[in-house]
Specification:
Mean pLDDT: 89
Helix content: 25-40%
Largest sheet: 4 strands, antiparallel
CATH architecture of the largest domain: Roll
Number of strands: 9
CATH superfamily of the largest domain: CBS-domain
């Protein structure tokens, strides 16, 4: 999937002739703090930020005369949405302009549309539990993790990796089942450290209690 499905072509833009006051008014109207500036011939010029406008000496002056037009974060339309997510995070953006190879403005990606993509394409809204494994990086094998899950008739819907503060790899698995006791036990038999479990897993005290009730019933 490329960015076509999450671009907002009608997102408001500023022109070089707009004043700082007009830019602030458009931001207030659209409840945003960043707006792309686009020339009359459709070229992307800069991303205008609210903080820069607030510090502008003459708010009636045209944006083309401002000294903060060097800020130009953007993404090529042929890129993958995960690349957009990386840029959003690294540059702390609320919107991300999309351009073609000639630097022509195509549209804008907003945080809302990107979040919608992440939910729909990462199985977040699909029913199922989550297991977090803690593994040394050299022992990480997605093939082996998937095999253990498949042996318990469990499908891995999504995988996320994170290196924690002690250098261990935390592998977050979104699975297609909420009942996780069997697959957790299987991971532990294969010497995996199961750090966290979000789903249904039987409590030993519950099992013992049910066993005692059964024995009491039998002895009646």
């Amino acid at each position: 999937m490329n960015l076509d499905q999450i671009i907002s072509p009608s997102f408001p833009v500023l022109s070089p002739g707009d004043s700082g006051d007009r830019a602030m008014a458009i931001m207030e109207e659209n409840k945003c703090t960043q707006l792309p500036m686009v020339t009359e011939d459709g070229r992307y010029e800069a991303l205008i930020q609210e903080n820069d406008l607030l510090n502008q000496e003459n708010s009636n002056a045209a944006l083309s005369t401002a000294d903060f037009l060097h800020y130009k974060p953007a993404i090529i339309a042929s890129a993958h949405p995960l690349e957009a997510l990386r840029i959003f995070h690294q540059m702390n953006l609320s919107v991300l302009p999309v351009i073609d190879s000639e630097h022509n403005y195509i549209g804008t990606i907003t945080k809302d549309t990107l979040l919608k993509y992440m939910v729909e394409y990462s199985a977040i809204d699909t029913p199922g539990g989550i297991i977090v494994l803690e593994i040394t990086p050299r022992n990480y094998s997605l093939y082996e993790i998937a095999r253990i899950c498949e042996n318990e008739d469990v499908v891995v819907l999504n995988t996320q990796l994170h290196t924690n503060e002690i250098g261990m790899l935390e592998v977050t698995l979104k699975l297609n089942r909420n009942a996780l006791e069997a697959v957790v036990s299987s991971f532990e038999r294969h010497n995996y450290h199961v750090k966290e479990v979000y789903g249904e897993i039987a409590n030993n005290e519950d099992i013992e209690g049910k066993y005692n009730l059964l024995m009491n019933y039998i002895n009646m």
